[in-house]
Design brief:
The complex is a heterodimer of chains A (486) and B (279).
Chain A (H helix, E strand, L loop, with lengths): L1 H7 L13 H4 L12 H9 L23 H9 L3 H11 L3 H7 L6 H4 L11 H15 L14 E5 L3 H12 L3 E5 L8 H4 L8 H13 L3 E3 L10 H7 L2 E4 L5 E2 L12 E3 H10 L17 E5 L3 H12 L4 E5 L11 H9 L3 E3 L2 E8 L5 E14 L5 E5 L5 E4 L2 E4 L3 E2 L3 H5 L24 E3 L2 H4 L4 H20 L8 H6 L2
Parallel strand pairs in A: 1-2, 1-4, 2-3, 4-16, 6-14, 7-8, 7-14, 8-9
Antiparallel strand pairs in A: 5-15, 10-11, 11-12, 11-13
Chain B lengths: L5 E10 L2 E7 L1 H6 L5 E5 L7 E9 L4 E7 L3 H7 L6 E2 L1 E6 L10 E7 L2 H14 L3 E8 L8 H6 L3 E6 L6 E2 L2 H10 L6 E5 L2 H11 L6 E4 L15 E4 L2 E4 H4 L2 E3 L5 H8 L3 H14 L1
Parallel strand pairs in B: 8-9, 8-12, 9-10, 10-11, 12-13
Antiparallel strand pairs in B: 1-2, 1-6, 2-5, 3-4, 3-7, 4-5, 13-16, 14-15
Classes of the chains: A alpha/beta (486), B alpha/beta (279).
The structure holds flavin-adenine dinucleotide and FE2/S2 (inorganic) cluster.
């Protein structure tokens, strides 16, 4: 049996992904992984055992928040049918080139891979990435065939992964979706947050274009709540989806935080990514980093800040994180890349205050050493201060990357929309909110999470909106949301 | 990616360094209120800058902005003509001026602040207030919006630094005189250079006259996403673009605002020089 033969000859490692040399790449904003060719990807796909579904064990597919038929598309790649593989992905996935780059596959599909039990898992992420890039290069422009119109109109607030997914899915079902996006470019965090060297903006643009071509209208520069309110949108649309994300930076609230040189990760990344400050003065938006940059936090956002700072010319880029290496919430790949590039990790340390010079610029940050105590609610060991262990680091820039909260603009302008104590919009399993006809999903209802979870929310909401528009306009009573909000 | 185009319907110079643009933006004009601002980007390489609206008309479907040409972006604005378009225009942003009937309101404006002051005076007048306007500039040629403000004011005082028109001196001198004369003043509104707003706030503080100032911190998004615009008010951090731009002048930390607004001075200089060089 052919399959049996294959099994005995499993290649233990993923086919290596060529990358820009760390010493070179810290001097530019080009993408770090260089991509693989068709031949390598076909070999990678052939590492897949095509496991049969089984009720007793989890497979790759069960780890995918948008339920892509992973063995299905890999089989097509094994046989060299890239376009059929892509068709299978597109059934579930509206942003494949993005997810093939930024998804935490190690905890999702690849985390369940049977090959990965003893060896490297099959490189599902990089196969998806390859296929999406292949499609983008092959693809003809022009309109994508649309199903007959249902005559129903849906307003989508926010053009991030959640909103774009809802809009794309609704278009496939024949509904007219219009996205209202506050910024001049669509993509949400994909354009303003995640740096060019991890996710080139040309790729986001192409994905957004694809969604446009499938019949979705996108209105940029459109801040809902300041222009139309949700109620006004409901007058002109049959349903509204809110996907406004977690765009509100969290602050440390420590002494000296408003000194010059102390920026939220959002400000820093928006200047660099959305406004292309790395090309100053060719682009007009400035950014300044100085010799030493300290980034507070240990997630993906912190890694992005620390790595961006190096590329902007900082001689030293330090991550200050209050727990230990094992608890760093960033993806391992990002931590690895950061270390390779020379980012220094000052672990088990937390900021105490910021010290400024006479002109109001930050010159030092005072921090304190921590040790790990008992696990807290999140299951991670709680950091405890070691009294008297304060120390000072000289720095010209401090980047605060300790999390984002839900964007309050729309809830503030929509009083009858119930929110939770975390400021997220309260939703049921279908993404329905306390306001009839209004759905929500992505970071605005989950709190800051991931691209693929936002997309998963978007997919569920699109299904629920479709059902609401075509078969069952009933709505849960207010009590459902009382429980969620408090 | 930006499919929107915002056409300039009228462009004119109010002074050699001050440009006024009337821009077609019916959606914004319909919602705009006094005290609110827009974020605009001139072209694809441009930065996003906040400009408080000097006027808006739902009937005409236009908004008007007035810019002092000091940096690269405002210089670029100065080169635009009717028929040209802006790359991006977002608004109306920020909280509108609180329009109450206070009784007598003194509005104090200086320099480019006069353009922003005009819709505020107009709206407060409409809300039933007795309006006293004190307007100032370096010299009489730089006094903008004088006629417009006069039309919606019950009393108008003009000041110039060089004495070429009206009172020879600062707007604060006139306000001080009114206060010393024990004129009934229920509310003061000040918009202009930071130093002017600070002096006005210091002047009214001992008399407990509630004083609103319109601040101009450096912004990036203008929607509360980044905190570039944070200001300290009453010892607490406020987000200028969402909680403001207007704040209680007695509680604003003007030193911090002045320092924060100097953050990118060196880069602004580089930007401007390369732009002027290229021209
Ligand atoms: C720096 C950074 C790095 C990250 N790295 C990763 C990663 O590697 N992998 C991963 O999976 N996830 C990552 N994430 C998280 C991920 O990007 C988010 O979970 C995801 O983007 C959420 O999607 P969303 O659509 O809910 O919200 P967003 O992407 O935040 O999009 C919301 C959109 O709504 C718009 N909006 C807000 N208010 C309004 C309004 N009133 N009117 C109109 N529009 C409005 C915003 O401008 C924005 O475009 C990262 C996040 C950041 C900040
Ligand atoms: S300008 Fe970004 S929060 Fe105000």
């Amino acid at each position: 049996m052919a399959e049996g033969k294959k099994k005995s000859r499993i290649i233990p490692k993923k086919y290596p992904m060529p990358e820009q040399d760390p010493n070179e790449r810290v001097k530019n904003f080009n993408e770090v992984p260089l991509g693989q060719d068709a031949e390598t990807i076909t070999l990678e796909a052939k590492r897949c055992l095509q496991c049969k579904e089984s009720p007793t064990r989890k497979l790759c597919k069960d780890g995918c928040p948008v339920e892509i038929d992973i063995p299905g598309f890999i089989k097509q790649v094994q046989e060299g049918n890239f376009s059929e593989a892509m068709r299978i992905i597109r059934l579930k996935q509206n942003l494949p080139a993005v997810c093939g780059r930024v998804c935490p596959y190690e905890n999702q599909c690849e985390g369940n891979c049977i090959v990965g039990k003893k060896n490297d898992p099959v490189g599902i992420g990089r196969i998806e990435r390859f296929l999406a890039d292949w499609e983008r290069n092959e693809q003809k422009k022009g309109k994508i065939e649309a199903p007959p119109s249902t005559g129903k109109k849906v307003a989508v607030v926010g053009g991030g992964p959640a909103g774009l997914t809802v809009a794309g899915d609704l278009a496939k079902l024949g509904h007219k979706a219009t996205v209202f996006e506050a910024l001049q470019y669509s993509g949400g965090v994909l354009v303003y947050g995640i740096p060019e060297f991890r996710l080139p903006k040309e790729i986001v643009k192409a994905e957004v274009d694809f969604i446009r071509r499938s019949g979705v209208d996108i209105k940029n520069d459109h801040v809902v709540g300041k222009l139309e309110t949700v109620d006004e949108l409901l007058e002109e649309h049959d349903a509204v989806f809110i996907g406004t994300g977690a765009g509100l930076p969290n602050w440390t609230n420590l002494e000296g935080e408003n000194l010059n040189g102390i920026l939220s990760a959002n400000e820093f990344l928006t200047r660099v990514n959305l406004m292309k400050a790395f090309n100053f003065p060719d682009y007009d938006t400035p950014i300044r980093v100085g010799k030493r940059v300290v980034t507070l936090g240990g997630g993906n956002v912190a890694m992005d800040c620390a790595r961006t700072a190096l590329r902007l010319g900082a001689e030293e880029s330090i991550i200050l994180y209050r727990r230990s290496d094992a608890e760093l919430p960033a993806r391992r790949e990002e931590i690895h890349h950061a270390k390779e590039e020379g980012v220094r990790f000052e672990l088990l340390a937390a900021p105490v205050k910021y010290i400024g010079d006479d002109c109001g610029n930050v010159k030092q940050i005072e921090a304190i050493r921590m040790e790990l105590g008992e696990p807290d609610d999140s299951g991670r060991r709680r950091p405890i201060r070691i009294e008297g262990s304060n120390f000072v680091l000289d720095c010209q820039t401090v980047l605060i990357a300790i999390g984002q909260s839900p964007n309050p603009l729309v809830p503030m302008a929509t009083p009858d929309l119930k929110t939770t104590k975390w400021g997220t919009i309260a939703v049921d399993a279908d993404g329905r909110t306390s306001k009839k006809g209004v759905f929500a999903g992505g970071d605005i209802s989950t709190g800051a999470a991931t691209v693929i979870l936002a997309m998963g929310d978007g997919k569920r909401a699109a299904k629920a909106i479709h059902k609401y528009l075509t078969e069952d306009p009933s709505w849960p009573d207010a009590e459902t949301f009382e429980k969620a909000s408090c | 990616m930006c499919a929107n185009m915002y056409e300039i319907v009228k462009a004119e110079k109010l002074t050699p360094d001050v440009t006024r643009l009337e821009i077609a933006a019916p959606h914004i004009a319909k919602k705009a209120m006094a005290g609110q601002f827009v974020m605009l980007t001139v072209d694809e390489h441009g930065e996003r800058i906040p400009l408080t609206m000097a006027d808006f008309s739902a009937e005409k479907g236009t908004i008007t902005i007035v810019a002092l040409e000091i940096g690269k972006t405002t210089k670029k604005l100065g080169t635009l003509k009717a028929g040209d378009s802006l790359f991006s225009l977002v608004g109306p942003l920020g909280m509108p001026t609180e329009l109450k009937n206070y009784g007598t309101v003194v509005c104090v404006g200086g320099g480019i602040g006069l353009a922003l002051m005009y819709p505020v005076v107009r709206s407060l007048k409409k809300a039933g207030n007795r309006m006293i306007s004190i307007i100032g500039a370096k010299n009489k040629d730089l006094l903008i919006y004088e006629d417009e403000i006069e039309k919606v004011s019950d009393e108008l005082y003009v000041c110039t630094d060089d004495g070429s028109k009206g009172h020879h001196g600062f707007v604060s001198d006139v306000l001080k005189r009114l206060v010393d004369e024990k004129r009934k003043i229920d509310e003061v509104y000040a918009v202009g250079p930071i130093i002017m707003m600070k002096v006005i706030a210091n002047l009214t503080r001992p008399y407990n006259i509630h004083t609103v100032v319109s601040l101009n911190p450096i912004m990036v998004d203008g929607t509360g996403m980044c905190g570039s615009c944070r200001v300290i008010v009453d010892g607490k951090t406020k987000i200028g673009c969402v909680d403001g731009p207007e704040f209680d002048g007695h509680k604003v930390d003007f030193e911090n605002l002045t320092a924060r607004n100097r953050r990118y001075l060196a880069e602004e200089e580089i930007s401007l020089r390369s732009f002027m060089g290229a021209k």
